[in-house]
Input
Amino acid sequence: MTLTADKRQIARAASIVMVAFALSRVLGLIRQVTIAGQFGTGREMDAYQAAFRLPDIIFQLVAGGALASAFIPTFTGYLTRADRAGAWRLASAIVNLLLAILTLTAALAALIAPWLVDWIIAPGFDAETAALTTRLMRVMLISSVVFGVSGVVMGALNAHQHFILPAVAPMLYNLAIIGGALFLAPPFGVMGLAVGVVVGSALHLLIQLPALAHFRARYTPVLTVRDPGVRQVARLMGPRVLGLAVVQLNFLVNTNLASRLGEGAVSALNFAWMLMLLPQGVFALAVATAAFPTFAEQIARGESAALRAALAATLRAIFVLSLPAAVGLAVLRGPLVALLFERGAFGETSTELVAWALLFYALGLVGHAGLEIVARAFYAMHDTKTPLLIGGAAMLLNLGLSLTLPPLFESAGWFAHGGLALANSLATTLELVGLLWIVRGRLGGLEGRRSLPMLLRSAAAAALMGLALGALLPALPGVNPLLLGSVGVALGVGVYLGAAWALGVQEVRAITLPMKRVANGQDRGDTAV
Output
C-alpha cells in the first residue's frame, strides 16, 4: 500500500465515521438537552453525574481505551500474517477474561459503594444525595460489564476497517438514555436515567454483532492468560491502564472538589464538558478512530515515513477544525447554553453556571483534539509508556492547579468551579505539547515547514472569527437565543472559512470539499485528511 493509498484509506474511513459520529453527537446533545429539561443542575443531577463516575472509571481502565490501544495492534498483527483463526481465538480469550474481571470488579464496587461515595467520589454531598448516588451507581455498574464485551467487538471490526456499525452503536446508547429521561424519569425520577444507561449498553453491543458474521468471526470458549496474543495485549495494556488511571483520577478529583462547591457545580461542569466534547467527538475522535488501524498497519509494515506523513496530515486537519470550534464555544457560550438547555428545570442560574465552565473548557479543546491523534500514533508503535509518563506529569499539574485555581477564582468573586475547568485545559494543552515534541523526534519531524505556517494562519482566521462574533453579541441585545445562536454559528463558520481561504490555509478544502480530490483521484500525496 502506497503513502497516497494510506492517506486515502484514512480519508475514506474518517469521512464515514465523521458522519456517524456527528449524528451520534447530535443525539448525545439531544440527550443532554432532555436531561437538562427534566432535572436542571439540581441535587438529582449532581447525584447522577457523581454515580456515573465509578462505572465509567471501571470501563475505561479495564475495557475502554486501554483495551483498544492494545487489542487493535495485536489483532491487526494476526490479520496481517493471514492468521484469522489466531485472531478470533485472541478475541474470544479477551472477551472471556473481561467478563470474569468486570463482573467481579462491578460486584465489589457495588458492595462498597456507600463508602466510595462518602469518602472518595462526593464527600461534599449531604446524606440524602449520597444515598441516591449509591443507588444509581449500583444500577449503572451493570453497563460496565456489557461495554467490556462491546469494546472487544468494536476493536475487531475497526481492525477490519469496518466503522459503520461501531459508529452507530453510540447512537442507540444515546437513544436509550433519551427514552429513560422521557418515559422512565417522570414516574421513577433520576433512576430512569440509570435504567436507560443499562439498556443503552446492551443495544451498543447487539447492533455490532451482525457484522461479526460478515467477517466469519469464530468464538472459542477459552479462558487463559498463557496465550502469546493475550500476553501481548496485557503487556501493552499495562502502561495504558496506568495512563487512563491518571485521566480518570483527574475526573475523580474534579468531582470530589466540585461536590464541595455547592449545589449545581458537579452538574454544571458535566454539561459544559459534554458541550466541549461535541466538536471534539465529531472531528478528533472520529478521525482518530479511523486513523488508528492504518497507523497500526504502517508500523506492522515498517513504514515509519508513511506514519509520519499520515500523522502530520491528520493533525493539520484536526487543528484546522478545532481552533474555530474552540473560539466559537468560548465567545458564544452564553447563547449556546441558553439555546440548548434553558427550559423546564434548567433556568438562568443554570445557564450562567454552565456557560462559565464552558469558557474555560473551550480553551483546552485543541489540546484534547490533538491528544486523540498523537496518543494513537504512540499506541500504533506499541509504545504505551511514553503517553503514561507525560500523562502522569499532566495529572500532577492538573491536581495542583485544581487545588490552587478555585480559591483564586472565589477570591476574585468568580464561580469557583471555573478554576477546575481551567486546570484541566492548561494541563491537557501542555500534555499535547510534550507528546508532540517526543513523537516529532522519534519520526524525524512532522512536516513542520508546512504544519507550523498552517497553524499560525488558522489561528489568525479563528481570531478574526472571534472578533466578528464578539462584535455581534452587543449588537443584538435581548435577541432570542435561537436566532442569536443560529446567526452566530453561521457568521462564525463563514468568517473563518473566508479568512482561512484568503490566508492560504489549503486544509479548509477538507471542510468545504471533503475528500473530493481523493475521490476524483487528484490526490498528490499532500492532501489533508
Notes: Residues 513-529 have pLDDT under 50 and may be disordered.
